[in-house]
């Protein structure tokens, strides 16, 4: 089963507008046009409109993701961003369930499931994050813990929707720490994620869903993850901030 790799940068809460514009102009010109990989940047909501407008080619190879959205399309939710609004800007993806949102903003599996439904309702694609803490990893519970997160996030979605979405497995202990997972751990966990999808939605769906590894991925280590049969790409924080580094990640995907 061949799945198109997807490399998604997650800028988190970084950059000022001039830096975002500079990144777009450098990357858009240099991005490989062979269409072998989906290249996505997850930007702060305040940049999304400018990012989409800044991409000059109508069919730009660079796609844009929001880093979060609310699960309602409109209402009295001060400070939140509506999936309907994000979709109207032409944004393709929304990252949901990142461990920073789960930990610092107390997002639950139920919230993440509602957001997944809202993203599809607005014709975008969710990138659903999952991942265990160091304590859970060390106690040997990672497969069960992550499996439960994935199953809860996908509840009530159609087989067709699940086949089209992206799941990012990101062990919390590997995020921003420089302590990346071994390629065997990444492969085993991405396979475990796919097995949960197979159990809940069937093997055909599991063969189509794209599963990324994330956590201290950089241009020097990405190739070893991409060589794993169940790893279809990466969600990358720190190494996505500079154009040269982001482009090097794309180049490493063959
Ligand atoms: P990192 O972040 O690449 O800086 O470890 C990954 C993420 O949080 O998505």
Give a written overview of the molecule.
Strands 1-2-3-4-5-6-7-8 form an eight-stranded parallel barrel, surrounded by five helices. The mean pLDDT is 95. Strand 2 (38-43), helix 2 and strand 3 form a beta-alpha-beta unit. It is of the alpha/beta class. It contains twelve helices and eight strands. It has helices spanning 17-30, 48-54, 83-88, 99-104, 109-121, 134-138, 142-154, 159-164, 183-201, 203-208, 222-226, 243-251, and strands at 6-10, 38-43, 62-66, 93-96, 125-130, 166-169, 210-214, 233-236. The structure holds 2-phosphoglycolic acid (PGA). The site of 2-phosphoglycolic acid has 13 residues, from strand 8.
Helix and strand layout, with pairings?
Layout (H helix, E strand, L loop, with lengths): L5 E5 L6 H14 L7 E6 L4 H7 L7 E5 L16 H6 L4 E4 L2 H6 L4 H13 L3 E6 L3 H5 L3 H13 L4 H6 L1 E4 L13 H19 L1 H6 L1 E5 L7 H5 L6 E4 L6 H9 L3
Parallel strand pairs: 1-2, 1-8, 2-3, 3-4, 4-5, 5-6, 6-7, 7-8
The structure holds 2-phosphoglycolic acid.
| Euclidean distance between termini CA atoms | 16 Å
Quaternary structure of the protein: single chain
- Helical run tally: 12
Instruction: Please summarize the sheet with the most strands.
Output: 8 strands, parallel, barrel
Strand content bin: 15-25%
Number of strands: 8
State Rg. Answer: 17 Å
Global outline? globular
Mean pLDDT: 95
Q: Within the largest sheet, what's the order of strands?
A: 1-2-3-4-5-6-7-8
Give the SSE string: EHEHEHEHHEHHHEHHEHEH
List cofactors, ions and other ligands.
Answer: 2-phosphoglycolic acid
Classification by helices and strands: alpha/beta
Low-confidence stretches: none
Query: What portion of residues is helical?
Result: 40-55%
